[in-house]
Amino acid sequence: MRARLLEACVELLVERGYAGTTTTLVSERAGVSRGAQLHHFPTKADLVVAAVEHVMTERGIALDEAARSLGHPGTRAVLELLADHVTSSVFTAALELWVAARTDADLLAAVAPLEAKTGRETHRVTVELLGADESVPGVRELVQATLDLMRGLALATTLGDDDRRRERILDQWAATLDQTLGRTA
Amino acid sequence: MRARLLEACVELLVERGYAGTTTTLVSERAGVSRGAQLHHFPTKADLVVAAVEHVMTERGIALDEAARSLGHPGTRAVLELLADHVTSSVFTAALELWVAARTDADLLAAVAPLEAKTGRETHRVTVELLGADESVPGVRELVQATLDLMRGLALATTLGDDDRRRERILDQWAATLDQTLGRTA
């Protein structure tokens, strides 16, 4: 029942945005009574933060598994994996949450630790996938820049950016990373 | 009067977000009657799109002027200028508009051309500032990646990212760009 509520909530965040995601709509879509929903999640903030956390955790596990299945991928394949990761509906739901939290102090208090944790996890997986040596000066910053680039591309995608542009940018970024990190793809 | 309405609207987008920006609040803050406001802007969408366009145009002019005053800046100075450009309150207001437009077809129809125009302008100024030669394969994509990185950093900033992290990333990216574009800072 909890999982049904969380998944319905993420769907609604993607379809209708934060303002359009009411607790009534969530309970209807999940087929859960209002009483049961309020028992699990007393406020809308409790519900949406738990929903995004739930899906981010699942996506983190999926990213880890995809990483393992790739073995030692080339840089371009790593970037493709990361780009898919951030252009998923989870990113869209998280974006709604981030923007709403910007002007809602209670929501921000709940979202900030979640964001920090997710950021650390994604960074760790990226370092592993790229086989990057962060003891070399500048390497840590390049990995961070790569993740910030992904976030920028994901934002552009929600605004209707085209995939071919993204592909060309990732091609070039992979070449630049390989050159700078001294790897061959 | 029109300019007062537009500036009040941008302030409210930054302070309260899209959902919290009501046309009543805008007319109150601008000290303009409801009738006069409705004459200029019949709907909330008309008002917010015009407001963000107004400020983006002003910021575009400011970027152009800053670019001219720098003469031939080093890559790091260019990145600083761009980062300041996207972490301003205009970016925040635009972010609110983009996210609201994602789930509002009418708003999206108005925002998409504005976004495309702003993107082209910023790209043009960046190429000029970096002295980049886009006829060289990969250079156009590097400039695009630089702007997407800026957008990602700006998004992180609205979530409370710290300035020092941003500075280190920009340092490293400037070094990488110089190396890849074959320039010396």
Automatic annotation (TrEMBL), chains A, B:
Residue stretches in coiled coil: none
Gene3D superfamilies to which the protein is assigned, alphabetical: Tetracycline Repressor, domain 2
Top-rank taxon: Bacteria
Residues annotated as domain HTH tetR-type: 1-59
Keyword DNA-binding attributed: yes
Keyword DNA-binding assigned: yes
Feature: DNA-binding region: 22-41
GO molecular function, one term: transcription cis-regulatory region binding
Keywords: DNA-binding
SUPFAM superfamilies assigned to the protein according to its UniProt record, in alphabetical order: Homeodomain-like (SSF46689)
One Pfam family it belongs to: TetR_N
Identification of the protein by name: TetR/AcrR family transcriptional regulator
Organism the protein comes from: Nocardioides acrostichi
